[in-house]
Amino acid sequence: MATQREQDAADYLKKHKIPELVENLTSMLFFYRPEKPREFLVEQLELLKMAQQSGTEAPSLFNADNLDAVFGILDPADQKYITLAQYKQALTMLGITDINECPEGANKDRISHETFKTEAVEGLKRCSATYEQL
């Protein structure tokens, strides 16, 4: 059983989304592998702070072209849809944990490119919400 001090620490981390922030920054380090990681992290935090202050979208590892490429890999026959299972797996691989379990097309097991992209963008935005507390 956790002590009160441990519970207070856990509550603080959760309130300020610190684990998510650290996870996102670590992912960016692994993805970009900068020569000067400390400077890179400072720069990312500054970009995130500017995004927060200006109300713009926080930086993300994935852009629209990346999402198109992911969909293309999952739809090599260019059928213009993927299965619900593929959709869930792809969003999970993008780091999205709170996936819409019943997106448009789920009842027919055909998730369109547009639905995939919309759900991915929204999921990535929710992931970026970890930066709201900066």
TrEMBL record:
Pfam families: EF_EFCAB10_C (PF24548)
InterPro entries linked: DD_EFCAB10, EF_EFCAB10_C, EFC10
Signal peptide extent: none
Membrane-traversing stretches: none
CDD domains: DD_EFCAB10
Start and end residues of each EFCAB10 C-terminal EF-hand domain: 66-124
Stated name of the protein: EFCAB10 C-terminal EF-hand domain-containing protein
Organism classification: Eukaryota, Metazoa, Chordata, Craniata, Vertebrata
